[in-house]
Design a protein that fits this description.
This protein is of the alpha+beta class and about 200 residues long. A 5-stranded mixed β-sheet has the order 2-1-5-3-4, with helices on both faces. Strand 1 and strand 2 form a beta hairpin. Helix 4 crosses helix 6. The protein is globular, with a radius of gyration of 29 Å. InterPro entries: 2Fe-2S-bd, 2Fe-2S-bd_dom_sf, 2Fe-2S_ferredoxin-like_sf, 2Fe-2S_ferredoxin-type, 2Fe2S_fd_BS, Aldehyde_Oxdr_Iron-Sulfur, Beta-grasp_dom_sf, TAT_signal. This is (2Fe-2S)-binding protein. It holds the Pfam family Fer2_2.
Length: about 200
C-alpha cells in the first residue's frame, strides 16, 4: 500500500525566509530615507555656509572684486565656482596639464596650485580679460586662423601660455616654442597648429 500523502507543515521554507528577509532589509534601507525626508520638510535646508570663511579683495581683469571664500580655496576654484569665470579650465587639478594657466602680475601661473587669498594685491588676468571691446587678442585670433584646437578644453590655457611665451621672448624657433609651451598638454594632438599660431601671433 502506498503511504498516504502527509499534509505539508506550515512554517518557514527557504524561499519564505528569503522573501521575508528581503522585505525586512528593504524596509530598514528605506526607513532612514523617509525619516530624512520628514526632517527636511520640518527643517528646510539652510544655505551652505563655509566655516571660517575670510573676506578677500581680488583684482581680476582690471576689476576689483570683494568676496567671502574658504581660506583653503584655490584660485582656480574661486574663479570657476565663486565668480563663474569658467574660461579657465579644471583639468588635472594637480599642476600637470596647464589647462588652468592664468597670468599673475604678467607671469603665467597654474591657478590650481595657488590659494586665492594669497593674491589680494596682485593683478590677475584670465582668458576673459584678453580681448578688448569685443576684439580678440592677437594670440586668440591666431589660434582661430590656424585651427589650433580641436575639442577646445585646453585652449584657454594654451592661449594664456602662448601670450606669456611671446612676451618672454621664447618664440625664436620651433624648438624654443615647444620647450616653453611644454607645460600645456593637448590630448587631441593639435601641437603643430598651436606652434603655427604662436609663430603667426609673434609677427
Amino acid at each position: 500500500m502506498k503511504e498516504e500523502n502527509k499534509p505539508i507543515k506550515k512554517g518557514f521554507s527557504r524561499r519564505n525566509f528569503l522573501q521575508v528577509s528581503g522585505t525586512g532589509v528593504a524596509g530598514l534601507a528605506v526607513a532612514p530615507l523617509l525619516g530624512a525626508q520628514a526632517t527636511e520638510q520640518k527643517n528646510p535646508e539652510r544655505p551652505f555656509e563655509v566655516p571660517n570663511a575670510v573676506d578677500v579683495q581680488l583684482n581680476i581683469n582690471n576689476e576689483t572684486i570683494k568676496l567671502k571664500i574658504d581660506p583653503r580655496a584655490s584660485l582656480l576654484d574661486t574663479l570657476r565656482y565663486k565668480l563663474n569665470m569658467t574660461g579657465t579650465k579644471k583639468g588635472c587639478d594637480a599642476g600637470h596639464c596647464g589647462a588652468c594657466t592664468i597670468h599673475i602680475n604678467g607671469e603665467r601661473k597654474l591657478s590650481c596650485l595657488t590659494l586665492a587669498m594669497r593674491h589680494q594685491n596682485d593683478k590677475i588676468t584670465t582668458i576673459e580679460g584678453l580681448s578688448k571691446d569685443g576684439v580678440l587678442h592677437p594670440v586668440q585670433q591666431a589660434f582661430v586662423d590656424n585651427d589650433a584646437f580641436q575639442c577646445g578644453y585646453c585652449t584657454s590655457g594654451q592661449v594664456m601660455s602662448a601670450v606669456a611665451c611671446i612676451k618672454e621672448g621664447h618664440n625664436k624657433s620651433t624648438e624654443e616654442i615647444k620647450e616653453y609651451m611644454s607645460g600645456n598638454i593637448c590630448r587631441c594632438g593639435a601641437y603643430p597648429n598651436i606652434i603655427k599660431a604662436v609663430k603667426a601671433a609673434s609677427k
